[in-house]
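Q: Got a minute? One more chain.
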Amino acid sequence: SVPSKGKMASYLERAGACVDRAGGPGKYDSASTSNSLSYAENHATCRRSCDVDAFCVGYSVYAPLVGGQVECKTYKAQAPEDAIAGATPSSSTTCYEKIYSPAPSPPPPPLPPLPLPCAFPDARCLG
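A: Always. Here it is, folded:
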């Protein structure tokens, strides 16, 4: 098996164009796509470009129904408000929000035992 590099990214699909937490279109780079590649290949390339970028918070794919250029945007978050918060209706566009599948979390540290309340006031209880 291949050792994984820490967290695995998966994507939450949202219909429409990505919207950031500030309600704007987000900060993105338009990635080049190729007319000679199929939609699936362009989509895979777009996803990979986000997979390998630690600052990438998601990507969107615009795919016109007939011909036309598939457009890929990868979203970068330099600040918390740049994170993808949802999507706004936009024809032929799908937004994919990067989510990290939760790694198994370490168990919380045990709490120190609480002193038992005194049921019978005796010498030990009264100190």
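A: DSSP finds two helices and seven strands in the chain.
Q: Perfect, thanks.
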